[in-house]
């Protein structure tokens, strides 16, 4: 018996409460973040990675010049160069917290978390900087030392003024440990202190989805959308919630906005095709699903499921038949 897309989608959400479970994130059109990517975002406000440093006039100090170049290399995704420059500064001055922080980032970007811990621990002790502490916690977790990471994040999220990326990292690590309710509390606390931080709003909405609390997820996302109407992740998550609620026309409208921002978002394309099928626009929906699979064999399974699950879709007895249909 064919299942409606709504019921299947709800079951898929219930399978995992993990905020970062690839199935949940990809279904919403949001690519799961790798730890090192999340770390770079957490450190984006660090003063030594700010563009204002490199634009300051009259800097003659060679260490400062090297750090500017190291920070630029990190932004340009050249972590080996950043490592070399930061290590040289740190060798000349072991107390240079900025050099230690950049070195830690460079090592993390090369998946060398174990080596990054020592310089980051020294930098965190000397600076008391919440961004450095957040990076240290992410590094500890990547190295398999989760309890130490969580303890560091408990301390960092207790700091005032609050540092929002620490709340997001804390919640993410708790969710990955299966402690989803605790993760929600962390994000709720963070939003009480910083109510307009979009990253926290997106994170908590995905956790709410993991608990099938779609009304709360939608409320948070609508607020986030008011503040950040052009954010792809906000729109993608809101479109997914709307699709799960069976509001296919509204979801299709939101997916059009998602695709206007990122035309190559194949997950959004597939979900948009589902919306069209459920709205009875069969030819248009099938055309979208066909375009989703062109040159992307990894999307074939998703397209097959969408066609079979939709109340206005198609059912094929042989895989070769549906493959031929999608390629036609």
From TrEMBL:
Keywords: Repeat, TPR repeat. It holds the Pfam family TPR_19. The keyword Phosphoprotein does not apply. It comes from the Bacteria. TPR repeats lie at residues 232-265. This is Tetratricopeptide repeat-containing protein. It comes from Bradyrhizobium canariense.
